[in-house]
Amino acid sequence: MGSNEDGLSALGGIKVLSLAQVGVGPAAVQLLADLGADVIKVERPGTGAWERSWSGANAFIQGESLFFLGFNRSQRSLTVDLKTEQGKEVIYRLIRVSDVVVENYRPGVMDSLGLGYEALARLNPRIIYCSATGFGPEGPYKSRPGQDLIIQSESGLASITGRAGDPPTPTGAPIIDMHAAALLALGIVTALVCRARTGRGQKVETSLLEAALHLQLEPLVYFLNGRRLRPRSKEGIASTYHGAPYGIYRTKDGFLALSIIPLQKLADALELPALKAFTEQDAYERPDEIRRPVQAALTQRSTDEWVRLLLEHDIWCGRVREYDELEADPQLAALNAFVDVRHPKVGTLKMVRHPVRFSETPAQVRRHPPLLGEHTVEILQELGYSDEMIHDLKRHGIV
User: Fold this and answer.
1) Which of 16, 76, 127, 168 is exposed most, by the fewest CB atoms within 10 A?
2) Per-residue pLDDT band at 2 (split at 50, 70, 90)
3) 71 and 20 in one domain?
4) 286 and 368 both lie in a single domain
5) Contact between residue 8 and residue 359 where contact means Cβ atoms under 8 Å apart
């Protein structure tokens, strides 16, 4: 799948001005860009967005950050100095012709630049102004840095994950960032629908902290309404609110996940009649006593053998896959879960496809992740800047 701007697209004609950085904002607008929105990423002249200079695992290809590449496809790059009046005038021109502006700075930063909601809404009352912060727009923590691990900790998520006796355990992927990005994209599309009815724009906000709470909807509802949650299991039951055998188990050659399973059914499948002495209440209150014999039984066969046998017994289970197994997985292959994108410096870039399917307006990777400032001249020309004016802006380092 490569760059393709022809044909019908769900969000064709929607212009999004992205003042977003790092993970949440770029991930949100990338969802919109794959659906046809014209996303213009605003970056600093010379150095570009922060994420161009950093990557987890120090992962760079031909000098390009894989962190940046993963979050910024299907977008155009405009370089402009927001701290200059001429640079702000470029943004003001864009605001007048844009539908959406997205930013994820700390509260107050955009206002200090003259680019807050009230200022931009005066230029374009139809503008939809979307903001994502770490801890929310008000409150004693509003100015704190918000990052996935910090929010997993502050929201309680880490405290309910892992084995008893171990430190609180964060997840192995930035799930808070990605969920907040999806919520932000949902907010944008909702505001666009509302504007089509009323003709008015509005401000849309979410935060990493609120996204983290939403992810924990099930256990939090239990807890907030008086249900006692069990302490973390010593033997590795995977939550504080499911009964045994819920969790990950070692097999003869790997690992197996067992989900919500009636103990009577599991006893028959594993040929462990002793399990039948436990009640479903015991499964919640005495999980470690149940897990130990189950673990001992599962080490006797391979993961594939257990998956076949347990599925025959209608038991919810799954093999634990490593990353190096994913591309060969037949289910992921059937879903075309990964796409190849051609990049002028990197070559073939493997990416995760857009997660939502549409029968009439499918998402597409419309552009490779942009080189720094790749579309600056193109965008300025669209805004009415002459070649002489563009040359002057470049000469003074404004773009």
Assistant:
1) 168
2) very low
3) yes
4) no
5) no
DSSP class per residue in 303-363: HHHHHHHHHHTT--EEE---GGGTTT-HHHHHTT-EEEEEETTTEEEEEEPPS---SSS--
Q: Do 338 and 313 fall within a single domain?
A: no
Q: pTM of the predicted model, to two decimals?
A: 0.87
- Is 237 domain-assigned? no
| 285, 319, 353 - which closes a domain | 319
- Give domain status of residue 268, yes or no: yes
Chain length of the chain: 399
What are the pLDDT digits (tens) for 319-360?
A: 888 878 888 888 888 888 889 999 999 999 999 888 777 777
Tell the residue number behind the tokens 């770029």, with chain if given. Answer: 26
Kindly state whether residues 108 and 188 are assigned to the same domain.
Answer: yes
196 lies in some domain: yes
- Does residue 6 carry a pLDDT above 70? no
* 274-325 residue pLDDT tens: 999 999 899 989 999 999 999 999 999 999 999 999 999 999 999 888 878 8
Sequential DSSP letters for 209-239: HHHHHHHTHHHHHHHHTTPPPPPPPSS-BS-
- Assess contact for 205 and 125: CB atoms under 8 A: no
Indicate the pLDDT class of residue 7, thresholds 50, 70 and 90. low
Is 227 a member of any domain? no
Share the mean pLDDT of the chain.
91
Residues 145 and 289 in one domain: no
CB 317 within 8 A of CB 255: no
Residue 149's H or E segment, with its range, is helix 148-154
Of 127, 117, 28, 106, nearest in space to 71 by CA: 28
> What percent of the chain shows pLDDT beyond 70?
98
Each residue's pLDDT tens digit, 104-120: 888 889 999 999 999 99
Q: What is the dihedral of CA 218, 224, 225, 230, to 10 degrees?
A: 70
Which residues form the domain of 289?
A: 255-319
Those residues with Cβ within 8 angstroms of residue 145's Cβ, 6 or more apart along the chain or in another chain:
106, 134
Strands of 247-250's sheet, edge to edge? 247-250, 255-258, 317-319
